[in-house]
Amino acid sequence: xxxxxxxxxxxxxxxIAACGGNGETTTxxxxxxxxxxxxxxxxxxxxxxxxxxxxxxVGVTPAPCDDAVxxxxxxxxxxxxxxxxxxxxxxxxxxxxxxxxxxxxxxxxDGGLDGFxxxxxxxxxxxxxxxxxxxxxxxxxxxGRVLALAQTLGTPxxxxxLDRMAEDNVVGAPATWWSGWNFxxxxxxxxxxxxxxxxxxxxNGMAFMASQLPEGFTWGMVRFPGDYGGDYGSGVEIAxxxxxxGDPLFDLYPFVPISAGGSVDEAVATILQHKPTLIVVVSxxxxxxxIAAGVxxxxxxxxxILGASPTWNVALKGSEAMPLLEGVYKGTTxxxxxxxxxxxxxxxxxxxxxxxxxxxxNRGPSGAYSAGWTWQYPIKALLEQAIASGDLTxxxxxxxxxxxxxxxxxxxxxxxxxxGTANDNAVRHSFIMKAxxxxxxxxxxxxxxxxxxxxxxxxxxEAPCFTN
Amino acid sequence: xxxxxxxxxxxxxxxxxxxxxxxxxVIIFKSTQVLNFAQPALLLxxxxxxxxxxxxxxxxxxxxLIIAIALSAAxxxxxxxxxxRPMVGKPIFAVAIMTIGLNTMLxxxxxxxxxxxLRPIGEPWGLKTIExxxxxxxxxxxxxxxxxxxxxxxLLVFFKYSRMGLAMRAAAFDQEVALTQxxxxxxxxxxxxALSAVFAMFGGVFVGAGVGIDRTAAVTALKAxxxxxxxxxxxxxxxxVGALIIGIAETLTSTYQQQFLPQLGxxxxxxxxxxxxxxxxxxxxxxxxxTEEVERV
Amino acid sequence: MRLGRxxxxxxxxxxxxxxxxxxxxxxxxxxxxxxxxxxxxxxIPLGFMTLSLDGEATFYLITTxxxxxxxxxxxxxxxxxxxxxxxxxxxxxxxxxxxAVLGGLGETRRVFDLASGDFVEQVLLFGFELDMLIxxxxxxxxxxxxxxxxxxxxxxxxxxxLAVVTLGxxxxxxxxxxxxxxxxxxxGVGRPTPPLSLLGxxxxxxxxxxxxxxxxxxxxxLLGFVLLLIFGLxxxxxxxxxxxxxxxxxxxxxxxxxMMGIDLSRYKTxxxxxxxxxxxxxxxxxxxxxxxxxxxxxxLLLSVEYIAMILIxxxxxxxxxxxxxxxxxxLPLIVRTLAGFPLFGFISTSPGGGFPTVAHIEEILFGLLxxxxxxxxxxxxxxxxxxxxxxxxxxxxxx
Lengths: 468, 297, 399
Fold this sequence. Notes:
The complex is a heterotrimer of chains A (468), B (297) and C (399). With 468 residues, chain A is an alpha/beta fold. Chain A is built from 15 helices and 16 strands.
């Protein structure tokens, strides 16, 4: 008797389900003539409305933004999925996000983009804690209300939502330098990356160090898992093999981040066993500094560190390890340091001084702030061109993004195109820096500006250096 | 050989940090029968006080340390009064799980205070080393060891000879009997939380010594859990032995595993404490020095 | 059969029935109908307000349904049998990765082999592209197997030692997931999850069903709803069976239970195995809905979340586990909504700006709720519901 109950319940719920479904479909049909579709990506019908001459659908309104800078302008909404509080990259996510909101604020204060203000509302900024699940849930939250993503932090996290972004025709600026974003088959058409990838950074860094260190030097690697360690490490290995530097003495990969329960002890012990001249470190700033300190204290004092751009954090300037780092740390960055003399950097500094700096909260010059700023230029160019084409629908924006040309970085990076092959348009130069307590962000350039190794310049870039 | 001895030195200094946190666990468990999962948060908060006074206020490290001891003790008492007192007499699981909730809350405050960046502790040892018989030893390692030895000895002396210490032992033995003998069990509870928070604070100081402290420091406090389990939840001596076993096992693994057993993967040393715990518990279900429970129906 | 005073229970069968009265049946049906209508995007007019779920809430609702299955599983071992397990995350992970391997795509890459000097195929990810009919049960079975392996350690230990050992299990499991990258994709990378395709019927793509178009969200919701119904009723049945009674006896006093002839190790093993099965199935589904599974997701925090679900919802009841799962899953949404009210204006909605932000409040509330429920309402939301019910039952003479 009990089982009959169970069966009938299940059956009943199915029947009810069927009825409910019916009702729902009609409402959608009824509504679709008048309102814009919510992002629920499976719904492929896009409804467009005319506002003046501009076509648009999701994430754009002809009405001005709330508290609009320019009252006569329409409004374009962008979203951000970042790591802001408890995740391992919160130290980067917060300044990144602040810079991007400041960037658009400056754009609006200069009159906006030909009839539109661009705004990143508080509710469209998602804190995903560098967690793929929260990232997916966050995208679900904002997919129905933003035109594009001003930031999506983390490669695997971004890959996790790529299908849905493609479904919705949502374009995004990444907060990662994976080499795969240069390729359409990896989703690169929707992702507008800026600067040289980790892979080229690693190549340039290794080639530069090889030119500085005595011949026959020994080296080893310690690197984080995923695209970060994988991509940078591949670049270093390619450079090493082409320059005849020999194999690494050790390659600790994947080296588990402290935030994921790891510890530098193993890395330090391995380094002390081999005592290499050059240690390539692809990690976070805390791990890098602890490795440097541990190796030095362990009795190996003649070494150099080559670090990827995320190994540096201006907070290291105040740490006990800074005198040591000034002697050993060399790092690569995709663009110039804080004090670089370029119009883009100047605008960025002015904005940061006004909106970001706050001594009471330890907020000063920050590499992440300038990265967040720089990553917005392609989105700006994209929106300008979409507006000029008279069509701000997501489909059109995505179509333009795939073939975007003429992105002006105001001198931070050379003009950039996304059309054509990766081999033609990828950025290949890096800046080689050293730790310097006297500079604003703790880094001074030692490569005399942009540096492209011959290997990097001639590298046939036909596939990502690393895929996972 | 040199490498082995160097590894053992590192192991002992790591054990000193574990011991500081583990003794904190034991103090609370002994007197209140609570397994305090909030110890990681107390460690972070303690380190936060120190770094706040040395870097933001900008006063001498030793003065900061004294203020931090007072503040940590106050935090411990406050937590005990507000959250633990209403739970007296409730099942031990309920209390243990409640401390998990406390840990979540306190960690938020600690991290908000600590900020997102690395913060220097401001201790005088920095990256200085001393050479002893051909071995390089970091000053912070020596300091950690000395602190752990001095504090634990002081604690044992306190338990053995002071009036309050005697009261704590009495309360640990049987709360009701202690009450009838005029022991203020409430004071005992408060004091044990205060002591535990101070021990956790010292653990935090030495985790952050050298490069600085950030949000990831709490992981160390979690690894002190297998330490107390290996030693036995209610034995301070057991906690010290457990700390030595686990500290040395961990550093030995991190030095030699990549050479001899790379198949186990990178970062294996980080789970060695838990493996040791499994093995010990399979042999002795109440840890090496834990009191065996006598069951009556 | 049911004569005389309402609420009078005069025989054992009625006492252990899934629904003790027609009233319970009626409200269960109402709840069923309402949930389905809501889930399908319909709205329910209530006179003073209209209940409906927008797209965002639907996502949380789907997650709730699957999380509830895992929470019910945990409730069996922790609530009913009294064995506090902090290792639930591990079993969720086993289920999730089993599904990903059996149902997902494999991946190989050509790499240069230094030893032979040739290019060789290297397996990056195992994947067998099997049907959901296989990977879903297999996920549960693998997790159950893991439970079976862990159980011998568990029934040797009692009390807090068990809690800490299961905590250790999470760390060991996380290491295993991290290192076994042909299965998990590796830390920080993870792997895509399998398509939800049951004998060719896709739950994750829109299609025509019985003459109407159902999109991905609605199909997933229905799938979750039916599965939750099945698992919930199964758990409810289990609780009132011989096994359930034995488990409750073990929880209340294990020594007394064993003196009455209950085989402690056998029943503790059964509890762990069944609970792990639930977790495995739920793990497979939750991450498939999200679209990507990463090894580091299965950490202590996840276990604590599930403990919080059953504590806040109600220990040892199915409906409590469901309520708890809903509450914890919806917590971010609740906090964000609260932050919109002027009363909660102190919550900063500006990202990364000041203290407390929405994320801070979310975590504080999470911790605070555990503390508050343990101190004031150990029976959880379920207990609150019982109190409200009893108040109105006796109204106007309730005091």
